[in-house]
Write a structure and sequence with these properties.
Elements (H helix, E strand, L loop, with lengths): L1 E5 L8 E4 L11 E6 L3 E9 L11 E2 L2 E2 L8 H13 L4 H8 L7 E3 L2 E4 L5 E8 L5 H8 L3 H14 L10 E2 H8 L3 H9 L3 E8 L20 H14 L4 E6 L5 H14 L3 E5 L3 H15 L3 E4 L5 H12 L9 E4 L11 E7 L17 H12 L2 E6 L4 H8 L4 E5 L10 E6 H6 L9 H12 L3 E5 L8 E4 L16 E3 L4 E3 L6 E3 L12 E4 L3 H11 L5 E4 L7 H12 L5 E4 L12 E6 L3 H4 L6 H13 L11 E6 L5 H7 L3 H15 L5 E10 L2 H19 L3 E5 L5 E2 L2 E11 L4 H18 L7 E6 L3
Parallel strand pairs: 2-5, 12-17, 12-18, 13-15, 13-16, 14-15, 16-17, 19-29, 20-27, 20-28, 26-27, 28-29
Antiparallel strand pairs: 1-2, 1-4, 3-4, 3-6, 7-8, 9-10, 9-11, 21-25, 22-23, 23-24, 30-33, 30-34, 31-33, 32-33
Amino acid sequence: MYVEVILPVPLSRTFTYRLSDDAEVRVGMRVSVPFGKNHVYTGIVVGLPPMCPEGVEVKEVVALLDDAPIVRATQLKLWQWMSDYYLCPIGDVMKAALPAELKPEEGKGGVVREDFKPKTKTFVRILLKDELAQAFDQLKRSAKQEMLYMTLLDRSHALTQEKPDEVAQDELLRMTDTTSAVLKELVKKGLCETVEREVSRIDTGQFCIDNLEPLHELTEVQKVVYRDICQSFKTHMTTLLYGVTSSGKTEIYLHLMQEVIAQGRQVLMMVPEIALTTQLCYRLRRVLGRKLLVYHSKLSDAERVEIWKQMLSDQSDERGSVVLGVRSSIFLPFRQLGLVIVDEEHEPSYKQQEPAPRYHGRDMAVVLAAKHGAKVLLGSATPSLESWYLAQQDKYGLVQLKERHAGVSMPHIHLVSMTDARKEQRMTGPFTPQLLAALRDTLSHGHQAILFQNRRGYSPIIECESCGWTPRCPRCDVAMTYHKHTRTLSCHYCGYQTPWPAVCPVCGNPHLELAGYGTERIEDVLQQTLPVARPVRMDTDTTASRKSYEKMLQDFELHKANVLIGTQMVSKGLDFSEVQTVGVLNADSLVNFPDFRSHERAFQLMEQVAGRAGRRVGQEGQVLIQCSDVRSRLLHQVVHHDYEAMAATQLADRQKYGFPPYTRLIMLYIKGRYEDRTRRLAEQYAAALRQTFGTRVLGPEAPGISRIRNFYIQQILLKVEREANTLVVRQYLNAIYESMVKANNEMQKVVFYYDVDPM
């Protein structure tokens, strides 16, 4: 018997192995196989060929690891689609899709990663419950043993139930403040016994069937939108819900979920950041209870495997009926997916950057749904121009919700001139007098505020006052950022760190000047300027773990903090009832970024962060946007919440210059250790591409940051017509790459990859 196997290696082909004839193997099972001279990998069976390829030495499978498939047929189809469309090896897709503990691997040093092991816990089971007098007679000389036994009687409900409950050993010992030695004495006396049980690692919270909340009744406006979505689903597989911030989209999502669950099908709800899963999780669990599973990158490998296995099981308790997750949740083994909801669908966080596959979670959600015959609902207050365009073309359905929930008014947005404040020398660090006054008034009345600055760290610019020296990363072509908390200079591209220098390393001058403001410095200045402020900072420096997200949001919810300072994280769907004021500290850095999407993204970020203000009845939110050019057309579109005007302007420009959604982009990257060789190969590659694609090829050129981790970078942009056959384009690209590799062995000395639909 032969098996065709995908291996988690960056290769675009499958491999054939021999298996004993009596083995019961099916597609989707895992096998352990030798690969190369010294490695054993875990692969996924994708085919059962009747014979082996000619002229190929076929090795034996080391072991069959499963009794049943752990990957479903629809998943394998999704993997292949992703490999084809995003021009990456199928092995890279498998590596990204499967949790690490489902891919045990052996190398020269022995076992690198063990296979998944279920979590076990020790429980205590009471014995002799009908002979209590004898039991207490044995314990009368030991007060601790007697207390432990009485607590066990109570917690196990031994006197009220025919079959007593088992009690977790750690809980029992903690309640009685005793040690395991005391428990061992009870076991020796035959009064109880300990047993090992497999337990779940999945945190389902403290919700059970008895205390679930019913769905809130939809408002009249929401009912109309709900009916419109259901009607749209009759004619469109995908529908775009364009709903302003705080319009009650989540409540509509819940009603749609309940309808799909009632049909016996599953729901995937995707969010762009795990910060959103924290708030949404509590909100959804109050209604869904244990039906909800949460899947994101901060879970341990073992937790992810357990969720994977839960999704594979066909239990009837409805666990896994709804999955709340980030982009990686599209890889889960859904049984019968009925609905995919992509919340904040415009977010760039849905695009995977490193490593391959560089897929877009929103787009793959549409593909995933198609393979299950499911519907897709894309929700946003500021839809991506790609989705808006497809809705205008009637490729997607379009439903609009333009009123905030319960008649709450949209926040008032004001543009504040930083130019005027600087001329009058009235700036306090990064704050204009108007923003400081608004913050002082808000906090003094017991309300809260959010400050948005799209730059972390303390200071992004450090310069010697004497000679002009600026610290730069030795591995990357980028200036380093100062982090005051750790007293280090840090590169935000490769992670390189070095201590803060006491003096300039060039001229010895002890006076180094700090310029610019990151979130850490803003927190510092705010505390010095407004003593009433109790800030908490949310950026990648302060949210390294899942618990840190939860603690931070909980502190803000409970008013332990009254100002939330952060980067893009604070713009993404957070819902706090007491936020009255939002400040955008430097809009120019968003608007003037050199990218064709910069105006779209700037509008989305400012409109989304503005939407955090004034989300409750009777509370009027205000937003202050600090900028240098108060006459900017884009900023006035933000002030008037005029998404449609922004979309019309930007789509006209993109059509004129041939950018998405009117074309598809493929970025080709060539990275090498030597600058000259990398540039020369990029020029040769671009010339080869032009022979086929002509003027659709732009470049090569070095990006704004031309060296990262000691790799010099060249990029070539390929613009392809939207209606072009992607299969033909892929065939051409593969043929050009193969001819380049054959003609020039230096191609083996550089890193080459594609980024399809770059963000």
